[in-house]
Amino acid sequence: MVWCTPDYSPDDSRSFIAKSQADWNNGHSYCFAILDVKDNSFLGSVGLTQINRAHNIANIGIWVRTTRTCRGAGAAATRLVARFAFQELRLSRLEFLVAADNKASARVAEKVHARVEGLLRQRLIISGKSHDALLCSLIPSDLTPL
């Protein structure tokens, strides 16, 4: 994650939460915490950003703590947020923009039945370096029951 740097502080977290609340209230983006249902521990986050009402689309992004990956939490959270996007916000398409070498995020997109639409050359800048990205999409009919 480009924001995850060694100097990320509790004040940075508080600022993020305040901005997330304002963005939610304004309908600009929606950020959700991913919590473990067993002990309520924090696992990561999933969110809808770059909402475009003219075309009824949004980006969906997710991250899960390295120590808690490969257990299905990312896919489950993504399905829930996709249902929120399609049912509550009435969006018709969600897009995943995944660094081509990010196998974990690509696997989450695959698990929720998002379709890979193409490889976008040098689409992302991560740590000052250009990276190719996969563009995946999810539409309501792609979702399977939980």
Description:
With 146 residues, this protein is an alpha+beta fold. The chain has a single domain, classed as Aminopeptidase (3-Layer(aba) Sandwich), CATH 3.40.630.30. It has 3 helices and 6 strands. The longest helix has 17 residues, at 10-26. The chain starts with 9 loop residues before the first helix and ends in an 8-residue tail after the last strand. The mean pLDDT is 89.
What are the salient characteristics of this protein?
6-stranded mixed sheet; 3 helices; Aminopeptidase; 146 residues; alpha+beta; single chain
Q: Work out the radius of gyration.
A: 15 Å
The strand order across the widest sheet is: 1-2-3-4-6-5
Give the number of DSSP strands: 6
Label the structural class.
Answer: alpha+beta
Name of the CATH class: Alpha Beta
Classified in CATH, the superfamily is Gcn5-related N-acetyltransferase (GNAT)
> CA-to-CA gap between the ends?
28 Å
Low-confidence stretches: none
SSE layout and pairings?
Layout: H1 10-26, E1 30-35, E2 42-52, E3 57-64, H2 73-88, E4 93-99, H3 103-111, E5 115-126, E6 129-138
Parallel strand pairs: 3-4
Antiparallel strand pairs: 1-2, 2-3, 4-6, 5-6
Summarize the structure.
The protein has 146 residues and is α+β, with helices and mostly antiparallel strands. 29% of the residues lie in helices and 37% in strands.
